[in-house]
Automatic annotation (TrEMBL):
InterPro entries: FGF1-bd (IPR010510). It comes from the Eukaryota. It comes from Channa argus (Northern snakehead). This is Fibroblast growth factor-binding protein 1. Belongs to the fibroblast growth factor-binding protein family. It is found in: Secreted. Keywords: Disulfide bond, Growth factor binding, Secreted, Signal. The keyword rRNA-binding does not apply.
């Protein structure tokens, strides 16, 4: 009987102690759903292999995109898109679905990735919080060391510059 009297409080204390210490771990497992970040890969029609990843920076989310041509190895694009999806309830409630829609939107852009500042990356669930091209964080690379140049007004592909279809070659 004495064993039962001392064992029951210890058992209760151990159970409650486990609940208190397990709560933060459980919260981390469930996670702040908005903190989930997305990443992925896609291929454009002109066979550029692109990778993208997102990261939180304060109240904004930056989406970095890098594209390379595996055959030529001389055309490379890098840019960042910026948005504030935390203002969207869909992003907060279902971040995985949001990033899946962003991946689909990037695939639809095809040749406009990192080049057309008017082309927005929109998730269907958050149409009012689109990713916009950050003009100051774009670059194109022709493969030669030190030939990387930031795109000021817009990000141009070096191939387009060389063919004269997109603007003067000094932007490359």
């Amino acid at each position: 009987m004495l064993l039962l009297r001392t064992f029951a409080p210890w058992l209760l204390l151990g159970f409650l102690g486990g609940q208190v210490t397990a709560a933060p771990g459980r919260a981390q497992r469930l996670g702040d759903k908005a903190a989930e970040t997305g990443r992925g890969k896609f291929t454009t029609r002109d066979q550029m292999q692109c990778t993208w990843a997102s990261r939180d920076v304060g109240d904004t989310v930056k989406l970095s995109v890098k594209c390379e041509n595996p055959e030529a190895r001389h055309i490379s694009l890098m840019c960042q898109y910026v948005a504030k999806p935390r203002s969207c309830p869909g992003y907060l409630s279902e971040p995985r679905a949001f990033w899946k829609q962003v991946a689909r939107a990037l695939k639809k852009l095809q040749g406009k990735v990192c080049t057309d500042e008017r082309a927005l990356v929109k998730a269907g669930m958050c149409k009012r919080a689109p990713f916009k091209l950050d003009k100051g964080n774009c670059s194109s690379d022709r493969g030669a060391p030190g030939s990387r140049s930031p795109g000021g007004a817009s990000c141009l592909r070096c191939a387009d510059c060389l063919h004269g279809s997109r603007g003067p070659p000094e932007n490359c």
